[in-house]
Amino acid sequence: MEWMPHVDKLVLEMLFNRTPPTCIQANILATARTFMPGTAIVKEIPSLSHIRNLRTVLLTTTKTLAAYEVGNAIEIKQTHSYETSKHQTGVLNVVNGLLTKDNELKTICLTVDIIPENGTAEEQSKAVVQSFSDGARLLDLWRDKTAEMFKDDTDLPGLLVMIPEKDRLCITRLLGGYISTDTCATARSTQTQIETIILDAAKEMGMTDKKKLVIHFGNCHNHIRNIWTKALEKRMKVFLTQLMQNDLDLFPPHLRISCDLYNIHW
User: Fold this and answer.
1) When comparing pLDDT for 127 and 51, which is higher?
2) What pTM was computed for the model?
3) Is residue 65 included in any domain, yes or no?
4) Distance between CA 198 and CA 174 in Å, rounded?
């Protein structure tokens, strides 16, 4: 059975709002009975397997819209990649800071939960570059499908203009931008390898102006803040211990417990 578009859209809306797939069938029935009491407007209902399959459709749609935002941006100001682990499996996220046509800064997550072949900097850098290639492929599929659906429509050229070309997700658009990661050695190596890939691609395209072949590096401030705070905490512990070592014995017992909590020894 092929469902009408409005049925799939309804399921996608519920999935987008994090409704568990096992609850969607009951929610559809409850909604229909609430808005149309006494009227059996629901003849059939999507199966649980179909609802679960639509999670892939939602993921593809979301990634396509993210690629659309990146492609329409005037400039890609920042690309941030972050590798973490879920259930002992390394996953990588790619987030972009964009300058929109309205001269506003906007953050778009181009792709999430990339599972590189391993956790090395080489594989992570390839995954970041691949996220742009995947976005370009989705835009191409969107343009092809639009051309197929509206091939006899006089407004087709205008529709195609609204969808960015795949070149708008070329990795060379990161030139002059800011690549940020956390502060570990692997992340720093990932920055360097991403830079090499971008510069090689630019040179292959005939770019020779050294003033344009520039990429800026930076560290995630959340990680820097943690490093600063940890160092400050260690220094303060030493300072307080030295300052109060002759007076700690004068503390009442209930205050000594507080000192133990802050790891102040006497």
Assistant:
1) 51
2) 0.76
3) no
4) 8
